Amino acid sequence: MKPGRPRAWHCLPADAVLLKLHTAATGLSAVEAADRLASNGPNELPDRRRNGALTMLASQFSSLMTWILIAAGLIAGFVGETVDAIVILLIVGVIWLKKEKAAVCNSI
Question: How many domains does the chain have?
């Protein structure tokens, strides 16, 4: 941890978090909850717009490694190495799927 940076909430002991949030393990009273709702607003995350399939596909081409693999697959196909071309393009597809799965898991 860098000096001067506060520790992340999940790294603090439970009693320290309760103290910082001015609450107790039993929760807030109805009066305190109403006061916090009035001062801070509801505890909601804004809706995020999901990217469409074309946007997701286009975002995959921002990586230099993806371009290199696609070029290698195309060159392999043009020189008659069909199996190599298919394998290389399948690798690009697997990388794309893994990146999308990670992105979906991180957005939940």
Answer: 2
At residue 37, the pLDDT reads: 92
Q: Is residue 80 part of a domain?
A: yes
Q: Tell me which residue has tokens 């392999």.
A: 76
Condensed to tens digits (0 to 9), the pLDDT of residues 33-88 reads 999 999 999 988 887 777 777 776 677 677 788 889 889 999 999 999 999 999 99
Residue 48 lies in a domain: no
- Range(s) of the domain holding residue 31: 9-40
Helix (H) or strand (E) holding 96: helix 82-107
- Give domain status of residue 46, yes or no: no
Tell me the whole-structure pTM to 2 decimals.
0.43
Segment (H or E) for 12: none
Does residue 1 lie within any of the structural domains?
no
Is residue 101 exposed (0-12), middle (13-18) or buried (19+ Cβ within 10 Å)? Answer: exposed
